[in-house]
Amino acid sequence: MKENCVIQVENLSKEYRLGIIGSGTLRRDLQSKYAKMRGREDPNRRIGAVSYEKGETFLALNKMNIEIMRGERVGIIGPNGAGKSTFLKLLARITSPSEGKFSFRGRIASMLEVGTGFSAELTGRENIYLNGAILGMTKAEIAAKEEDIIEFSEVREFIDTPVKRYSSGMFVKLAFAVAAHLDAEILIMDEVLAVGDMRFQRKCVKKMRELAEEENRTILYVSHNMNTIQELCSRCVVLEKGKKIYDGSVEEAIRYYLDGSREEFYSYDYIDKKFREQVRRNDVTLMNAKFNGRTSNLFIDDEKLPLELTWKNNADVNGLCLRIEVYDSYRYPVTSFIVEDFYSGKRGKVHSQRLELDISRLTRGRYYTRYVFYTRRSDSKAFEDVEICAGLVFRKQMNDATSRRWNSSWGSVMAGKAELK
What we know:
This protein has helices at residues 26-37, 84-91, 124-134, 139-153, 168-181, 198-214, 226-232, 250-257, 273-276, 400-404; strands spanning 5-17, 57-69, 73-77, 99-104, 108-111, 186-190, 218-222, 235-240, 243-248, 284-291, 298-300, 304-313, 317-327, 333-345, 350-358, 365-375, 384-397. By secondary structure, it is α/β, with parallel strands linked by helices. A six-stranded mixed sheet has the order 5-6-7-3-8-9, with helices on both faces.
């Protein structure tokens, strides 16, 4: 291992056998085997349960390789079943790998489930000492941190109550406080903060960042909350089907997770039945969308976005309106461009409309669009959507001078100047 490396993982794999291993008793196992030999249904299998052949396996983690340095705050993201929790369980030595190896320096404190390492019958105070003892700390070392743990946990009133009577939120508060304050060089967490309230989540994220920056602790954090990943982590790993598909900056990792960076730009039919099923009418069908006269979706500084939409009228259309919604790389809405009462046409007619969008105030980044066609029957009635379509992806880039004046964490839109009065 390198001098500053605290976790080194080499070709780490974890394989699980599918289905039930044994029926619980020898008699039932023999019944199942006899039924299979006779070509009959297993009498001990639950109705509707999937039957797996002997030897069928599932690769939860597939040849994982990674090095994590001291003081890094590493986020691990990916869809359900990607192998995130399996990876942390291997590092916490809850389960053993099927193949490969990993090495680490220092003590590991883990929070993989609410109350991991807690004894339900013991009080909160007793569990503080139990967890410290598991980490190899002396009673005097734990006692020196006891008051800080209780203060941070916000459960002082219940600290001498058995934790089996705690709510899930109280459990998380105490468990995090213990993990954060005891002397462990590596802290691994798996979505546990989702149980706590928002104020306590922010408090925990701030504490973890302080541990990494001021005490040089290493943090591994699994979450589906991209806000906390972005706020806490300095590096991010994306897992998919047990494999590492990206390891690098947090912003790019989140794009991979949201399938942004792998989505190519091109013009094509936007016919999405899932969207149309959500609206009451379908007067138009968008047939094509493109950036008129361009082969690239990259726009620099004050360049306008030339958009061309082609649609077919499925009925007589009067007073058609259009809303072009813009979302950032995390799929959060940024702004919308609105054109009202700009088109009327007969059934069966195909129409193309060119527009020019001013995106000069958008900062550097990747943006997604959605096109909403709607009508307004009268001023007294609400808008009525007639077609909602996924749109084209575009990228915005600014020159170096502008980029240096703006931090992406400040937002996606650059407002005007603030004038001193």
